[in-house]
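**Entry details**
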Amino acid sequence: MSTSRKNAARAAPVAVTSEDVAYHEASGTYQAVFDPSSQLVSEAVLTTVAEAASAEPLDLPPLYGAVDPDALNALLGARDRSRPTEGVAVSFAYAGFAVDIDGAGTVVVSSNAALDPSPER
């Protein structure tokens, strides 16, 4: 194993934490930026949605009920330079929220009123 591979194997991934999720009052969204080379996209989604829902990630429904996590990680995750992710974006509904992810590593979570079956009163 080369030295760079050994160092890469030892480096711990830097995860998006709840402290990395920012609420943007003007747009009513929660946003987080993650590094696809060091964190799974699906983990960044779970952390951001959990923060928006004021819940723990393990309290959320399984992500695979909304999107295939492996496909999401493959599409927007770490890639070699020959397969850039600029211009790639994925949007889906999950746990009552609209989730938008772009190839630059930004997760945006907003309330999805269209998914709320309860009428406004």
About this structure: The longest strand covers residues 89-94. The mean pLDDT is 80. Helices lie at 3-10, 41-53, 69-76.
